[in-house]
Design a protein that fits this description.
The protein is an alpha+beta fold and 75 residues long. Helices cover 28% and strands 37% of the residues. It has helices at 13-27, 42-47, and strands spanning 32-38, 51-60, 63-73. Strands 1-3-2 form a three-stranded antiparallel sheet. It is globular.
C-alpha cells in the first residue's frame, strides 16, 4: 500500500517510493508490476507509466468504491 499525507502530495515522495519499488521488483526478476488503485490515485499511476487493465468495485465498510487494476512493464 502506498499512501502520502495530503500535506505532502505533489512533492515527489510517492514517485520516489514507487520508483524504488519498481527497482526492487526488477531485481527479483519481475518484468511487470501491477497495482490496484483508487479513482483519485489513477492519474498519478498513469503519469508514472501504468496502464489500466480493468475496473472493478470493492466494498469497504458497506461503501462501494471504484478501483482499477493497473500494470507497467519495467523491462
Amino acid at each position: 500500500m502506498l499512501y502520502v499525507h495530503k500535506d505532502r502530495q505533489g512533492q515527489g515522495a510517492a514517485g520516489r517510493i514507487l520508483f524504488e519499488l519498481e527497482i526492487a521488483a526488477a531485481a527479483f526478476g519481475k518484468a511487470v508490476v501491477c497495482a490496484d488503485v483508487s479513482l483519485t490515485a489513477r492519474p498519478f499511476f498513469e503519469h508514472m507509466g501504468y496502464e489500466t487493465v480493468c475496473s472493478k468495485a470493492v466494498m469497504r465498510r458497506g461503501v462501494e468504491l471504484a478501483n482499477f487494476r493497473m500494470v507497467k512493464r519495467i523491462f
